[in-house]
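Feature request, filed as a ticket because there's no other form

It would be nice if the structure record came with a short human-readable summary line next to the tokens. Right now we just get the raw output. Example of a typical job, pasted below so the devs can see what we mean:
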Amino acid sequence: MTTEEIHALLLEQFSQEKITGSNFEAIDPWIEVNPQDIVEVCEFLKHDERLQFDHLNNLTGVDYFEPDPKKASKFGHDPHVEVVYHLSSIELKHRLVVKAILPRWKDDQEGNLPEIPSVCGIWAIADWHERETFDLVGIQFIGHPNLRRILCPEDWEGHALRKDYEMPLEYHGIRGR
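Raw output as currently delivered:
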């Protein structure tokens, strides 16, 4: 099944408030889902007999932010973060990319991490992927059973894959640069 066919099926099942966009011309065509509805849509993607997306290949976060004010006007995006889900159906041999777009900061308050519901209850492997995304990009996964750092030490400050992240000069008395 193509991304366009899956998109049409999702629009039949859900409203345009839940299925909020798509790009069929991208190298990896994708469908955008409202963040609040990600669990409901993913449940459908996994359990509907026509789709059977039984495998979460990858889940990651991407920061769309240009910290250089001179380049920001040419950037072409409003600052935001995305959660990107790469799904496969082993049985039906098709794949899909799903995106959820979040503000960089919850309630536009810098340092207040954006939130999205966890999909750990749908694909168990999401546990590790969501922890890595939380650790490096700073996205909170609501309902995650053990959301804590997975790569950085627990007392690390900040999220290293955010575009405005500043590497500390020192960590526990060890000079970094």
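Something like this underneath would help us a lot:
The chain has a mean pLDDT of 94.
The longest strand covers residues 55-64.
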